[in-house]
Amino acid sequence: MKVKHITEISGALMRARWRQTLVAAVGVMFSIGLFIALLGFMEGLNQLLDGLVLNRTPHIRLYNDILPSKIQPIDISKDFKNHHNFISSVKPTNTRKELYNVQQIINTLNKDQRVLGVAPKITTQVFYNLGNIDLNGIINGVDTEKESKLFSFSDYVVGGNAQDLKIVSNSIILGSGAADIMRAKLGDIITVTSTEGEQFNLKIVGFFQSGIAEIDKVQSFASLATTQKILGENSNYISDIQIKLKDIKQAPAMAEEYRTYFKVDAEDIQTANAQFETGSNVRSIISYAVGITLLIVSGFGIYNILNMLIYEKMDTIAILKATGFAGADVKKIFITISLSIGIAGALAGLILGFLLSLVIDAIPFNTTSLPTVTTYPIDYGIQYYIIAALFAIGTTYLAGWFPARKASMVDPVIIIRGK
User: Fold this and answer.
1) What residues contact residue 111 under an 8 Å CB cut-off, 6+ apart?
2) Could you give the CA distance from residue 287 to residue 358 in angstroms, rounded to a whole number?
3) Which residues does 378 contact at the CB level (< 8 Å), separation at least 6?
């Protein structure tokens, strides 16, 4: 019975100041709506920016790095075995960039349950010949099917088809920046010169646009067979093995494991792209800080409204306590008011946040650097809605608890005597 009375009294007090109650609920609604829209937009932007590089980067890369020899002849000498030897101008060892036993390594990786996929790759420097001018370039020899499946290669090919690399012999997909400099078009034949001085004619079957201008000025793609031909190597020549994992967080540990097991150099994505992860974390922290500030501000609004309500309804509180309502019951009444405002504002805010996200997602966003993006990015993650709702309810509860505690301590005798 008391629960029913508490509910009825709470409703009556809210209706008595319905304008202030509505303002408080609207404040919560806008706070939650903007929190969801802001977080969804910032996380969508993070995914877009990181995707420009991270989606095109293997989780683990196996290769042979060119490094100075760790053991010098003087270190082998018994006469200087226990000495500290300082050697300047140490030259790199005479090692090949080619990976040995590539097929066995790939077969072993494919059997690893932690691995999502493996793609071989060859990287070589060339010169794009433009009349009397030679432009520096890099040709990436790839398996187009695996590259498209694991690294979204086809999404970045504009004008032409990525699969033509495999179908058309001696073909190339040219970086959009390099193509603009050379005024190249689909179907044109360009000449490239290898580091050994050999020249090859390649047919342009597409253009690659990563969104990073400096990369697009030098980078191009060809099939593995074409790249091996440019280098004058056999069909077993592979310089890199790209690995995509099911769980990217395992990359550092697995890179160390593969380095030891296969006796090759291994680089994980966290090491190769640490700056992008740092930037994403900073943007996320800023977004959460702004959103939580909005919710706290709305909580202060509810706190002020309930404080004013208590001062105006002191006689009502005194009568309630004089007729048998305990201090705990009075506290429940004002907490009920606060939570009612919070829950109503939270539900409306969730809907507003979703609608704002839809509006942002529909705004056109066209730029030549991002050909696959047509509207502003939005992440519709359910976690933002859950965080917003829980934080709003928690904030409004605290905003109501302090005034409710004050109301529960009112002495009815002093109030009635004063009247």
Assistant:
1) none
2) 19
3) 40, 41, 44, 357, 360, 361
Q: Which of 216, 245, 270 is the last residue before a domain boundary?
A: 270
Among residues 257, 47, 51, 236, the alpha carbon closest in space to that of 151 is found at: 51
* Structure-model confidence comparison of residues 126 and 1, the more confident one: 126
Average pLDDT of the residues in 98-127: 90
Q: Within 10 A of 418 (CB to CB), how many other CB atoms are there?
A: 9
Task: Please give the mean pLDDT across all residues of the chain.
Answer: 79
Q: How far apart are the first and last CA of the chain?
A: 30
- Assign residue 352 a region: left if phi > 0, alpha if psi is -120 to 50, beta otherwise? alpha
Contact between 126 and 193 (Cβ < 8 Å)? yes
Q: What is the DSSP string of 360-383?
A: HHHSB---TT-TT--B------HH
Q: Which residues make Cβ contacts (< 8 Å) with residue 193, sequence separation at least 6?
A: 126, 127, 129, 134, 199, 200
Residues 313, 223 within the same domain? no
For residue range 316-347, what is the model confidence (pLDDT) as tens digits? 666 666 666 676 777 777 777 777 877 888 88
| 232, 332: one domain | no
Considering 229, 252, 270, which residue would you say is the last residue of a domain?
Answer: 270
pLDDT value for 165: 87
Residue 77 pLDDT greater than 50, yes or no: yes
Using DSSP's 3-state secondary structure scheme, residue 123 falls into strand
pLDDT at 146 over 70: yes
* DSSP character at residue 156: G
